[in-house]
């Protein structure tokens, strides 16, 4: 026994500084298991010379790695003479690798070259291949998961959907309720945590400044590289927040885990605001866009969002605003200045259950499962749908095929109208051919109730789902997004009522009735089409362009 203790002490002293190895003991005389699998590789760290590379290996049982090697076919490194168990990370430079993985680090002896353009790795025991894996074209600061065949940013979270007991909530829509979000922020007693994409709304900024002045914890986390660049107006707003004691950070730089930090939520004490709109006048300020939002009196939902905020705010890519803005220039953007009536006032509702969904961790899969379980209706309002091959749209079409009533209402803004017009033509033609109860429209509200659709929401039977997730592939797999699924007839009825009013009020000018579509399909794209439609559809109107 004394000999084994001394051996363990010697091994511990031999490890590089800062390296702690769990599940690793001194080598035993015999190998108890040879069941090992290459789990992942990190070939392209940001550091010069790719310092910090590692390969993760899972050992199903206690395994003596004496005589084990890891090779890329050109260079070979030896595993130590120890017994290991579980998942470990092996590295030639363990001190550098420990900052990039939570797995216990085991040092390799020799040289192992993980080329950025690709390698075939082999784990060998006494010369026999135990496990092999291949990767190609390693993105910077991403880990290759050999089991899923995907690249994942180092440090990416892995949240499961969190289902709560629901409770009271206040449903609202924009631009009808410009005071809904700011009014809630003004009631804070302890904390306000904001997770957003952009931030320019002066009224919301004033609420945060007042909270900070009263000694509350106030934190804002935003994207550091929004499409089109960060505006000068936002820079001035964030300057004011920082000067007033608000902790403002933006996600930027080589260690950014997600393509865009795109959520729209706030934690207010033990309540949560989740919306489809940004923290700007056109969004939560109520000056322009149609959007959905909800205030949840649900401490578990709030705690979940607070956990997400903390995980993203403390990641190494979260840069303090003062450090980020130094030496940068910003773009000029005119703020929205419109005003609209309040046809749909906020309504207090009871939610049977709330589920917090997060992308890229779980949102797309969970949303698809809900669509696949639909029995009665799917009412979808979106800015756009990325493509016909979108897996969420595929689930909607499968629902239509089994008899579910489907209505799809897409944005009509100049930057999406052509693609949306082409997609709804295809959807309506397919619906007519299949005999589905599915209709699709591009919005044509012409600014009477709102300026444009910016909603990212769907009603599925008696559940309403809303949040920041656009229906395109990149948002589902590459962005940080936050949604909530509100189960219960009251929530579904509120948002369904708004949807139906929007659907009827735009008149469907850009969508042909199913019967007329059938006639068009029979006679070709001819005189039945009027000039206004050709402006949006053009040559894609031809029947030969169908894709099923």
TrEMBL record:
PLD phosphodiesterase domain mapped to chain residues: 257-283, 449-475
Keyword vocabulary terms for this entry: Hydrolase, Lipid degradation, Lipid metabolism
Entry keyword annotation includes Lipid metabolism: yes
Pfam families: PLDc_2
UniProt cross-references to InterPro entries, sorted A to Z: PLD-like_dom (IPR025202), PLD_domain (IPR051406), PLipase_D/transphosphatidylase (IPR001736)
SUPFAM superfamilies: Phospholipase D/nuclease
Any one Gene Ontology BP term: lipid catabolic process
GO molecular function, one term: RNA endonuclease activity producing 5'-phosphomonoesters, hydrolytic mechanism
Top-level taxon of the source organism: Archaea
KW Repeat (keyword) present: no
Coiled coil: none
Membrane-spanning segments: none
Protein name, entry field: Phospholipase
């Amino acid at each position: 026994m004394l000999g084994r203790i001394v051996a363990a002490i010697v091994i511990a002293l031999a490890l590089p500084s800062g390296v702690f190895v769990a599940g690793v003991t001194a080598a035993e005389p015999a190998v108890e298991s040879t069941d090992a699998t290459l789990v992942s590789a990190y070939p392209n760290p940001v550091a010069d010379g790719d310092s910090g590379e590692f390969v993760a290996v899972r050992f199903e049982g206690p395994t003596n790695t004496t005589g084990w090697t890891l090779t890329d076919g050109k260079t070979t490194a030896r595993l130590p003479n120890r017994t290991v168990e579980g998942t470990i990370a092996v590295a030639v430079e363990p001190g550098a690798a420990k900052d990039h993985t939570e797995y216990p680090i085991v040092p390799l002896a020799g040289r192992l070259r993980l080329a950025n353009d690709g390698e075939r790795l082999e784990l060998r025991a006494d010369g026999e291949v135990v496990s092999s894996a291949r990767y190609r074209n390693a993105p910077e600061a991403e880990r290759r998961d050999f089991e899923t065949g995907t690249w994942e940013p180092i440090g990416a979270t892995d949240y499961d959907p969190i289902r709560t007991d629901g409770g009271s909530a206040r449903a609202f829509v924009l631009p009808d309720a410009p005071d809904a979000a700011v009014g809630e922020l003004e009631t804070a007693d302890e904390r306000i945590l904001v997770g957003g994409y952009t931030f320019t709304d002066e009224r919301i900024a004033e609420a945060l400044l007042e909270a900070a002045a009263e000694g509350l914890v106030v934190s804002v986390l935003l994207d550091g590289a929004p499409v089109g660049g960060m505006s000068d107006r936002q820079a001035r707003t964030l300057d004011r927040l920082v000067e007033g004691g608000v902790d403002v950070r933006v996600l930027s730089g080589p260690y950014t885990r997600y393509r865009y930090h795109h959520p729209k939520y706030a934690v207010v004490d033990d309540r949560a605001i989740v919306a489809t709109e940004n923290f700007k006048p056109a969004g939560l300020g109520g000056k322009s866009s149609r959007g959905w939002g909800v205030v949840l009196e649900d401490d578990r939902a709030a705690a979940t969002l607070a956990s997400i905020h903390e995980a993203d705010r403390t990641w190494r890519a979260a840069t303090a605003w003062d450090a980020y803005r130094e030496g940068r220039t910003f773009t000029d953007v005119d703020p929205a200045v419109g005003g609209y009536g309040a046809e749909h006032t906020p309504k207090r509702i009871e939610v049977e259950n709330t589920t917090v969904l997060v992308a890229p961790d779980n949102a797309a899969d969970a949303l698809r499962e809900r669509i696949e379980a639909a029995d009665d209706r799917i009412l979808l309002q979106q800015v756009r749908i990325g493509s016909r091959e979108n897996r969420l749209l595929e689930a909607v079409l499968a629902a239509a095929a089994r008899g579910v009533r489907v209505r799809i209402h897409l944005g009509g803004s100049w930057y999406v109208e052509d693609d949306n017009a082409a997609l709804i033509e295809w959807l309506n033609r397919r619906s007519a051919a299949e005999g589905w109860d599915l209709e699709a429209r591009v919005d044509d509200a012409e600014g009477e109730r709102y300026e444009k659709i910016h909603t990212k929401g769907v009603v599925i039977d008696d559940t309403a789902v809303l949040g920041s997730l656009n229906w395109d592939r990149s948002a589902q797999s590459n962005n940080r997004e936050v949604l909530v699924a509100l189960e219960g007839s009251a929530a579904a009825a509120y948002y369904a009522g708004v949807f139906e009013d929007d659907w009827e009020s735009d008149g469907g000018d850009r969508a042909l009735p199913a019967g007329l579509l059938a006639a068009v399909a029979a006679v070709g794209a001819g005189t039945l089409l009027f000039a206004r439609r050709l402006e949006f559809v053009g040559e894609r109107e031809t029947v030969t362009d169908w894709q099923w």
